[in-house]
């Protein structure tokens, strides 16, 4: 049994990880989460009280972080400002949380000799051409495009430097785009599903030719647990499930899953600096640590996700109007 401190555990991927860990291991979990607009305690309902506790707080609060890290066997660091569009309008919170927050955590982990796993994104590598035969690997040079991805890149580099200079017991993973339950309605897939539920046409940025490499959140969780258990200290592992799809195809699949005509969507203003394509080569994780994704059928996963949003309107409804009002101001 391990005592895990999970930062950002009330967010999308963090909450999926907490559910996954509590049902697949006997670990105890403490979640540290600030409950920003993206955090939702409803995502952590029904967890076993003897093995789970929630602490509301900021990862940049050094005394609180020091106390929590001192009583953990490992830290799994998900907390972040995570949305590219928000970072283009107000970058400051991205610096505070993604850079200073990560710095605060690794200082505590170094002081207490605590195992640390840093969650990051494929966006640190920039983007690829649509016809580029090469995918991102652990050797791809960093080339982030947005305030969000540049602060994630900065946080990765801090962790790498702390490993080399101070012997921090850390691993890093960079994952592709996740989908599944508990994702905030600002993000692409839940935004379109909940638009269709509301009788509103999905909104595609630009031409919709941008490609994302989709992975189910449960596959991300199993990969992180595998790295935590078997990963080599100081190493980076890329996580991906060979799920490349252009945005137009994803919208068409959502419309199909929800019984709407395939062309019932609108093109809207493109995102400035919009990355064209992400694609992950996860050979290292698969060969070295024996990990395999379980969700191979994207269309079935998308149908199940659409059904989850239909069944859980009380979870997302409170965020929907405010999120759409923000997009409307930006012509999106
Ligand atoms: P999210 O926005 O849904 O959740 C972020 C969580 O962090 C929220 O619960 C929020 O309240 C919390 N948080 C924010 N600032 C905090 C602070 N200062 N102190 C404590 N808690 C704070 O994000 P997500 O999509 O679940 O992403 C989680 C992590 O995974 C991020 O590090 C992100 O970069 C990474 N990631 C995301 C994806 C994806 O597709 N969503 C893919 C790869 C990597
Ligand atoms: O690649 C991993 C990253 O995936 C994570 O690091 C980020 O935290 C996560 O938010 C996600 O970033 P993206 O910018 O790729 O995700 P988003 O859901 O915002 O958009 C996915 C694609 O869909 C992108 O090409 C922009 C487009 N899009 C998005 C929205 C919200 C639309 O066409 N219409 C929309 O309404």
TrEMBL record:
Record domain NAD(P)-binding: where: 5-302
GO annotation, biological process: nucleotide-sugar metabolic process
Catalytic activity: dTDP-alpha-D-glucose = dTDP-4-dehydro-6-deoxy-alpha-D-glucose + H2O
Keywords, ordered alphabetically: Lyase, NAD
Gene3D superfamilies: NAD(P)-binding Rossmann-like Domain, UDP-galactose 4-epimerase, domain 1
GO molecular function, one term: dTDP-glucose 4,6-dehydratase activity
EC numbers, comma separated: 4.2.1.46
Top-rank EC class of the record's enzyme: lyase
Recorded superkingdom: Bacteria
CDD domains, alphabetized: dTDP_GD_SDR_e
Cofactor(s) for this UniProt protein: NAD(+)
Similarity section: Belongs to the NAD(P)-dependent epimerase/dehydratase family. dTDP-glucose dehydratase subfamily.
NCBIfam families referenced in this protein's UniProt entry, alphabetically: dTDP_gluc_dehyt
Protein name: dTDP-glucose 4,6-dehydratase
Organism: Sinomonas humi
């Amino acid at each position: 049994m391990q005592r895990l401190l999970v930062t950002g555990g009330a967010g999308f991927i963090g909450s999926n990880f907490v559910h996954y860990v509590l049902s697949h291991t006997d670990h105890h979990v403490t979640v540290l989460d600030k409950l920003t607009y993206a955090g939702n305690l409803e995502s952590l309902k029904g967890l076993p009280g003897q093995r789970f506790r929630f602490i509301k707080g900021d990862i940049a609060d050094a005394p609180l972080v020091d106390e929590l890290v001192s009583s953990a066997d490992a830290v799994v660091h998900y907390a972040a400002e995570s949305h590219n569009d928000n970072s283009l309008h107000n970058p400051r919170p991205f610096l505070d949380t993604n850079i200073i927050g990560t710095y605060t955590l690794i200082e505590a982990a170094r002081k207490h000799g605590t195992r640390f796993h840093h969650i990051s994104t494929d966006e640190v590598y920039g983007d690829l051409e649509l016809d580029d035969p090469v995918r991102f690997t652990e050797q791809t040079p960093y080339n982030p495009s947005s305030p969000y991805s540049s602060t994630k890149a900065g946080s990765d580099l801090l962790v790498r430097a702390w490993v080399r200079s101070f012997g921090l017991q850390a691993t890093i993973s960079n994952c592709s785009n996740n989908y599944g339950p508990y994702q905030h309605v600002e993000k692409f897939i839940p935004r379109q599903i909940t638009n269709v539920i509301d009788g509103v046409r999905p909104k595609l940025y630009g031409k919709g030719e941008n490609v994302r490499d989709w992975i189910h959140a449960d596959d991300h969780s199993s990969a992180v647990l595998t790295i935590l258990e078997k990963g080599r200290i100081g190493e980076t592992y890329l996580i991906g499930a060979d799920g490349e799809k252009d945005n137009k195809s994803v919208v068409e699949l959502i419309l199909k899953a929800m019984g709407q005509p395939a062309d019932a969507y609108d093109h809207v203003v493109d995102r400035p600096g919009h990355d064209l394509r992400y694609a992950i080569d996860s050979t290292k994780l698969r060969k070295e640590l024996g990990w395999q994704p379980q969700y191979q059928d994207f269309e079935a996963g998308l149908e199940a996700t659409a059904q989850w949003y239909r069944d859980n309107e009380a979870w997302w409804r409170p965020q929907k109007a405010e999120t759409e009002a923000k997009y409307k101001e930006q012509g999106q």
